[in-house]
Structure formats: structure tokens, C-alpha cells
Amino acid sequence: MRVVVFGAGAIGSLFGASLAHGGHEVLLIGRPDHVAAVRAHGLRITGSLVDTVELPAATTVPADFAPDAVLLTSKTFDLAAAASLLAIEVPKPVPTLLPQNGLGVEDEVATALAAGGWTHTERWIVRAVNSVPATLLGPGEVRAAGTGELLLGRPASPNAVATRTLARLLRGREFKLRYVDDLPREIWRKAILNAAINPVTALHGVVNGRLREEPYHTESLALLQEAVTVARAEGVKFRDKEIRADLERVLTATAENRSSMLQDLDRGRRTEVQAISGEVLRRGLAHDLDLPATRRAVEAVRSFSGRPAASRGQSS
Ligand code: PAF
Rounded distance, CA 131 to CA 209, Å? Predict the structure, then answer.
């Protein structure tokens, strides 16, 4: 198949490399420095997956590259703009994977694609929950930090055909692909865990595993509890025991990881706090819920964006 990875950062590049290894024709669309490095030296993958992969990279989709599928892997704060651009550059709709963290991602993309001219966007968009870890070490270089899985909703109308197409493409790679019956619940589960982990790691400059220790553990549990309350208000129920066990499991499995939000702050980049904790807060307000820990976390992460790592204190 011909695949465009649109917004190829860490995870998009890793998926692209894996697909190219599997014999697919893959085009990476990304930031100019990343694209230039991939063109010059190939894409270097270190860690548990593959090696150096030769594959074409560009900043726009050439007119003659008509893809069969798109992996739209931009960060959430770039997503609406990326989807608008995608609709211009790939005018014929194709199955499009959205593996981002956060809540409300698919609505934002559907709106942008429809405004750009795609029709029946609900048939083409396939939301996924991703736990395959990847870090962009620098232009042209990605670290695969272990194994993980990609969850897709079990194929059903309206996007059953697109889901099957993407599942065929992505199955049998170095990561696991799994269908789930209740994808919205899995999206919430991931958002709750991200809301509990990412701001605490980012604000204190610590790896995920440190959140098993105090005072980080208490901070993280307060965020977890508030996010669970909002999910419940939206009709998505998690038992305290279940979600706390999920938190412990992820903290242990990713103990050495620097969370994506910590990596973003380290690089002086924007973070995905709005799509994660900001969206929890927005939805909580709509249900008249008071979320002091989440509010403080959103404000603090925003205030640290673009400031040097040292100003956050401890780092490990
Ligand atoms: O955003 C991240 O970094 C990851 O989703 C997670 C699960 C927190 C692991 O680092």
C-alpha cells in the first residue's frame, strides 16, 4: 500500500519505518529539519524495533503520490492545522488513523477535514489508542523505547471499511494491534492516565517511575481522581481499584520513560496539556465539577512552556 505519514514526529516515523520494512511505500511528511535528515541519512531507529530505514520524506505530498491510507500523527496542538493541510494535499479521502493522546481529537479533525473538502469524514477517520513508546532523539533519529500496543474499535459502521484497511496495514508489525469493543472508554482510560502522569512528571522533571514515590504519588492520585470523576459525569465508569491498578501498571512498565509532556517542556516546545488536562477541566466545568488539582496543573504546565528545564527544579 501507499501510505502517507502526515506530521511524522516520533511515533509517526516509527510506524512509517515499520511499514517500509514490511514492503509498503511510505512517504513521511514532517518538519523541515527532520525531513532533511531523513533524506540525507535515512531514518535511524534505535532501541527495540528496526535499524536505519531508507524512505522518502517531504514537507508536502507530491501530486503523483496518491496514498491508500494516511497516518495523521501530528501533536494535538497542531492537529486542526495539519488536518486542513491534509485535505488540500490529499483531496481524495482515504482511511486516516488518529493515534493521539487526549479527548475530542476526532471531532476536531473531522471539522477541519470537512472544511477542507473531504466528504463523509466519519467513514474515513479511525481513532486509535496508542501505547507504543517512541522518542524523537533529534532530526532523523527515533528511539523505540520498548513494545506497546495500538487499540482500534472493533469494525462497525460507519468506518468499518477504513478500520479494516488500517488494521490490515498495521497488523503483524513489531507492536501489537488489538480490537476493543468500547474504544471511547479506552480513550478515556488513556486520557485519565495521561492527566495523572504527564503534568506531574513535566512539572517536577522526573521519569514516570518516580511517581510511585512521595510527594509525586499523592499529586498524581489527586489528578487521577478528578479525571475519573469527570469521566463518570460523562457516563464512562471506572472503579477506583481498576484505574489505580492501571496507573501502577503504566508507572512500572514505563518507569524509565520521560513522558511526552516532560520531553516537550525539555525542548521548550508546546505541550499537549490542553487536549489532556485542559479538556478534563473544560468537561468538568460543564458538569459543575470543582477540579482544583487539574486547574493548578494546567496553569503550571502552561506557565512552564518555553522555559528552561532547570527552572522546574529537580530532574531525573
Ligand atoms: O504521554 C506519554 O508519555 C505516555 O502516554 C505515557 C503513558 C504517560 C508513558 O510515558
Answer: 16
Which range of residues forms the domain containing residue 205?
A: 184-312
* Residues lining ligand 1, Cβ inside 6 A: 101, 193-194, 197-198, 208, 250, 254, 257, 259-260
Ligand 1 center to residue 198 CA distance, Å?
A: 7
C-alpha dihedral, 199 to 146 to 59 to 139, nearest 10°: 80
In this structure, the dihedral spanned by the alpha carbons of residues 93, 97, 101 and 104, taken in order and rounded to 10 degrees, is 40
Q: Is the pTM of this model over 0.70?
A: yes
Do strands 43-47 and 52-53 pair parallel, antiparallel, or not at all (unpaired)?
Answer: antiparallel
3-state SS assignment for residue 48:
coil
Is the same domain home to 169 and 209? no
Q: Which one-letter amino acid corresponds to residue 266?
A: D
Peptide bond into 158 cis (omega under 30): yes
Chain centre distance of CA 286? 25
The domain total for the chain is 2
Q: Are residues 197 and 140 in the same domain?
A: no
Classify 284 as helix, strand or coil.
Answer: helix
Q: Is 190 a catalytic residue?
A: yes
240-260 tens-digit pLDDT:
999 999 999 999 988 888 899
